[in-house]
Amino acid sequence: MGAANPVINSEVQAWSDEEVVGRVLAGETALFEILMRRHNQRIYRIVRGMLDNEAKRKTSCRMRTFARTNIGGSSRAARHS
After folding, report:
1. What residue ranges do the domains of the chain occupy?
2. Residue 5 has what pLDDT?
3. For the chain, what is the radius of gyration of the CA atoms?
4. Residue 70: is it exposed, middle or buried by C-beta count within 10 angstroms (0-12/13-18/19+)?
5. What torsion, rounded to 10 degrees, do the Cα atoms 13, 16, 17, 20 define?
6. Is 30 exposed, middle or buried (CB count within 10 Å of its CB: 0-12, 13-18, 19+)?
7. Interhelix angle 32-50/17-25, nearest 10 degrees
8. What is the rounded end-to-end Cα distance, in angstroms, of the chain?
């Protein structure tokens, strides 16, 4: 099993999404941050197009942040619970 908080260096950044997803599913959940950073704007645009008002978009963005901090294994989630 990989490290809980791997250093996200240029080598790791060069991995394909498929490689990152495989490693996240294998337990290296801190790598989820890479996917969130790579696709942040696309995720926001899709959510914005799907939701009909600003309040729902803000809630959805909060949920995305919550998912990122929890799936990514961040200690930030524990501090805010």
Report:
1. 10-73
2. 47
3. 14
4. middle
5. -60
6. buried
7. 110
8. 27
The pLDDT tens digits for 11-61 are 888 899 999 999 999 999 888 888 888 998 888 888 777 776 767 767 777
Find tokens 């997803």 and name the residue.
Answer: 21
Residues 37 and 60: their CA atoms lie apart, in Å, by 17
- Which has the closest alpha carbon to 35: 7, 12, 51? 12
Q: Locate tokens 């950073």: which residue?
A: 37
Flag whether pLDDT at 67 surpasses 80. Answer: no
Q: Give me 51's structure tokens.
A: 């939701």
* C-alpha to C-alpha distance for 24 and 73, rounded to whole angstroms: 10
The two structure tokens encoding residue 16:
């394909």
Task: List phi, psi (to 5°) of 29.
Answer: -65, -20
> Higher pLDDT residue, 41 or 64?
41
